[in-house]
Amino acid sequence: MKIPVTGFVMDNGDSDTHHSHKLYITSWNGRPVHVHAFSGVTSVNDGHSHQYASWTAPAPTGMSHVHSYHTVTSLDFGHTHIIQGTTGPAIELPGGGHYHLFEGYTTIDGSQPHSHSYAGRTGNEMSSMQ
Questions:
Q1: How far apart are CA 1 and CA 14, in angstroms?
Q2: Are strands 51-55 and 59-60 parallel, antiparallel or unpaired?
């Protein structure tokens, strides 16, 4: 099955030859796409927690969907963790728009290897072009 996707690619100015461009998807199968902000603080493990904040990957507007997400936590106690996963389905807001719930466990890292749990809800939807 072929799905028409439109968007554009921009050089991100990074010297990494493997990831020197970013893809911005503006529509998926004729529908505009949107993203959500998400942020929070992990559980306390090994005597500390980490903060995180980022944007979900784009998803089509106006249909049932989920978003993938990926970010790196703050640097605390000499290390970071990766947070990644897929949100739950859209939950409608009374005034319009929607949000998603997310939860999971970070990657294992630290001088005493450990992970952290995290959970939260995204912000309301935003056009990926804002």
A1: 34
A2: unpaired
Long-range contacts of the stretch 37-42 (C-beta < 8 A, 24+)? 37/122, 37/123, 37/126, 38/69, 38/102, 38/120, 38/121, 38/122, 38/123, 39/120, 40/118, 40/119, 40/120, 41/118, 42/73, 42/81, 42/83, 42/106, 42/116, 42/117, 42/118
State pTM to two decimals.
Answer: 0.77
Mean residue pLDDT of the chain comes to: 85
Query: Nearest to residue 92, comparing CAs of 69, 121, 119?
Result: 121
